[in-house]
Amino acid sequence: MLLSRLRPLPALPYPSSTDDLRGDAAVAAAAEDEAEDIFAAFLPHLLPDDAPQFHGDPGQCLLYSSPRYGDLTIQVPSYPDQSGSASSSPKQSDSDSSVNSVDSNSDPGQVDAQRSLFAHFVWSAGLIVAEAVEDAHAGREHVDEMWRVEGEKVLELGAGAALPSTVSILAGASEVTITDHPSSPALRGAIAFNLKRNIPATNGCAVSVQPHEWGTLASDSWAMANRGRFTRIIAADCLWMELQHKNLAQTMKWFLAPEGRIWLVAGLHTGRPVVVKFLKTAMEMGLEVDTIYERDQTTSWAEGDGEIRRDWVEVREEEGPENRARWCIVARLRHAC
To answer: Where is this region: Disordered (predicted)?
Structure first.
């Protein structure tokens, strides 16, 4: 099943900077299986209705087993007070567009605000995107051609650990830009580690990592320079904050190329009404739904059990917290005609 592709590895010391990334020997030493980790990896098989929406602990490394690309080591972003390394992190000025460093003596409210961004997990929605991109690259017959990224310019919003971006690079995208909120902890080492660990030096994709706050466009020189640039935009589990729906839709429309497509994947852990509200907001902002369906996250073609889908509905009467966790919404958006 799809969710069992991720296996936790023992946590490694979090790097004090993007230059302090663990080497192969340290990662290999951390790859010894532990009984409880193996059991946890198979819990979705035993309790599919309780399928997890997110994976990993802050600073932990997860092993993503890819049928096409082999084992990928994905580090979950950490936080200064969890890593104990923030005092040696480089500081930025408030006017800098890069991430402002927050040390362990910072205002607890500021650290809590960063936590509210939920970057310190790998979300199941990201696994859905990663699998679809990989299957399309492998040429599997069941996959919609729109998941192919060869030669495409890909933008990931709210990337966190950036698993979909990592797979897109391996799948032949010509350009991949990884973005997260300027205060996201993912920009302080985890993304850099994941790229260095998993992307061969000979890969020809143009890769960049860019802080971006949704809805901040005309005042952002990077946003102004890249308007309408991206042919594929990834938004995996980005709908949890309803107050940001308009900003998110504005950012999507701004960066989307005229014939481009947005891949929106949203777990139902935030509730079906949240997805409905965002889709309505997106349409008000000039986007439209090209394709939409509901997918059982516990199923996977690569694992031999196929993929279970059902039609999207705005209201499902029999649905509740006890039986919705295994489902996610998969939508493809485009510019309105």
So the answer is: 1-28, 74-110
